[in-house]
Amino acid sequence: MTDSVGATRRSSEVTKGVILAAARERFAADGYERATIRAIARDAEIDPSMVMRYFGNKEGLFAAASEFELRIPELGALPGKHVGAVLVSHFLDRWEQDDVLTALLRVGVTNAAGAERMQEILRGQIAPVAAGVCPDPAQAPQRAALVASQILGMAMARYVLRIPAAVEMDREEIVAWLAPTVQRYLTAEVP
To answer: Which CATH entry fits the domain spanning 12-65: 3.40.50.2300, 3.40.50.920, 1.10.10.60, 3.40.50.300?
Structure first.
């Protein structure tokens, strides 16, 4: 469908999708502070007023663009001793397959809204995993925080700061180093 000046018109869902894709790329490249509605609109080839119409403001756009499902595998059927290795492998896959997660990490360390968004994702998606495998579900929030410290620490070193030694490690090395620690955080008795 085209409008009176010959430009292609998109449905509102398609338009929102195009805006969100442009926003994710811009937030990943520039971070939250430097990304602008105007630049995102230019990337999406749309008027900035349309971005505001759909998302209200930059914070609303960021919240929508940073919706992220970690897609943590079901761990209930696994022998308990393999949970750490499965989670570390899974997170390596997620970091390597989706720039949105890396963008969220970058924004999370420089912006309060980004930090809050990362906290929501981790609290909502890692804490239930911890509750399902730890000896005392009341400890799940602390255990999830410890797991996040390992996962986010490696992600920061490997994908954001690009520390050569972290980048050069292969997946098997990373899993071998991190999995026992993640496993301990999730399943060991309290020290």
So the answer is: 1.10.10.60
